[in-house]
Amino acid sequence: AVPGGAGRAMAAAAFERRVLRCAAEHHYLRVRLELPDGGARPNAAQFKQLVVTALRELHGEVGAALPVDVLTYEEKTLSAILRVISSGLVKLWSALTLLGFYQNRRCAFRVLQTSPFLLALSGNSRELVLD
Amino acid sequence: HAALSRRYVLCEVVSEDPRCRQCIEDRALGLAVRDAIARVHGDYGLACCSVSFTVKYLNAYTGTVLLRCRKDSYRLLCSVLPFVRSLESRAQRYPCFLNTLHVGGTIRSCQKFLIQYNRTQLLRLLQNCTNEEERQCIQKSLLSCSLTEEQSQSGDEEEDDGTE
């Protein structure tokens, strides 16, 4: 029973369909930095500096000004979760792909997961172990 | 042939230093613009804009410059022109800035705009004359402009009345 609706004529509910394309404003990336030589590991600030340097090399000052955040960083495994504004995802990913050197040491970024929702990064079916 | 569309950007070089005029040459200007693109848009922007990028026309007396680029990257190029702050040639560097006047799809449209623009500029210069002899000078040169018959190029700009 509709509360308070007895005796009042209700208008027929109109069907409304909303389609949102690329509605999320941020994209999240789980990345891992590979440093094959066993040298000193960068800390969180140096890691962010590396990401911004990669953007500056490929996309200039405009790329370096892109709002990128390092949400989490683990120095032991060199993996991090990055957040970037959705319009800048292509610039960030291409910059990470083409980065080759960190302090004259060979390095590579591996992008493990990406999603417009942070919750989706909590589980990774690729690393699932079936026993 | 629409796939190879180009855009022509017309701009003028403005400088407080009169010696900057000798730096207005195609190599110095091309290098300055390319350098600014590399700074602002990085390797990707530089490669994107450098495809078929040239300085098509230069006029060191008026400081007019016509640049050509691909249609896909003309916005990149136009966004970078405010970042060109100095011109360098023969180990001399002078501060300047670029004013974008017109963006056209063909050289002819830019030329038509330039003729119209020069006309209005001349009239404005005449109005802003401070003393009488400058006024006489400009009036004399305006009245002596004429349309000459040339085979391949269009004639000089002409003025109908130089008295205003």
From TrEMBL, chain A:
Matching InterPro entries: Pop5/Rpp14/Rnp2-like, Rnp2-like_sf
UniProt GO cellular component terms: multimeric ribonuclease P complex; nucleolus
Example GO molecular function: ribonuclease P RNA binding
Statement: the UniProt record of this protein carries the keyword tRNA processing: yes
GO biological-process terms attached to the record: tRNA 5'-leader removal
Pfam families: RNase_P_Rpp14 (PF01900)
Key words, A-Z: tRNA processing
UniProt xrefs under PANTHER family: RIBONUCLEASE P PROTEIN SUBUNIT P14 (PTHR15441:SF1)
Family: Belongs to the eukaryotic/archaeal RNase P protein component 2 family.
Protein's name according to its UniProt entry: RPP14 protein
Organism from which the protein derives: Picathartes gymnocephalus
Gene of this entry: Rpp14
From TrEMBL, chain B:
Annotated localization: Nucleus, Nucleolus
GO terms for MF: ribonuclease P RNA binding
Keyword Protein transport: no
GO biological process, alphabetically ordered: rRNA processing; tRNA 5'-leader removal
Gene3D superfamilies per record: Ribonuclease P, Pop5 subunit (3.30.70.3250)
Keyword GTP-binding attached: no
InterPro entries listed in its UniProt record: Pop5/Rpp14/Rnp2-like, RNase_P/MRP_POP5, Rnp2-like_sf
Record key words, sorted: Nucleus, rRNA processing, tRNA processing
Chief subcellular location: nucleus
Entry GO CC: multimeric ribonuclease P complex; nucleolus
Family membership: Belongs to the eukaryotic/archaeal RNase P protein component 2 family.
Assembly, per entry: Component of nuclear RNase P and RNase MRP ribonucleoproteins. RNase P consists of a catalytic RNA moiety and 10 different protein chains; POP1, POP4, POP5, POP7, RPP14, RPP21, RPP25, RPP30, RPP38 and RPP40. Within the RNase P complex, POP1, POP7 and RPP25 form the 'finger' subcomplex, POP5, RPP14, RPP40 and homodimeric RPP30 form the 'palm' subcomplex, and RPP21, POP4 and RPP38 form the 'wrist' subcomplex. All subunits of the RNase P complex interact with the catalytic RNA. Several subunits of RNase P are also part of the RNase MRP complex.
Alphabetized PANTHER family for the sequence: POP5 HOMOLOG, RIBONUCLEASE P_MRP SUBUNIT
Function, in words: Component of ribonuclease P, a protein complex that generates mature tRNA molecules by cleaving their 5'-ends. Also a component of the MRP ribonuclease complex, which cleaves pre-rRNA sequences.
Protein name: Ribonuclease P/MRP protein subunit POP5
Organism field: Picathartes gymnocephalus (White-necked rockfowl)
Protein encoded by which gene: Pop5
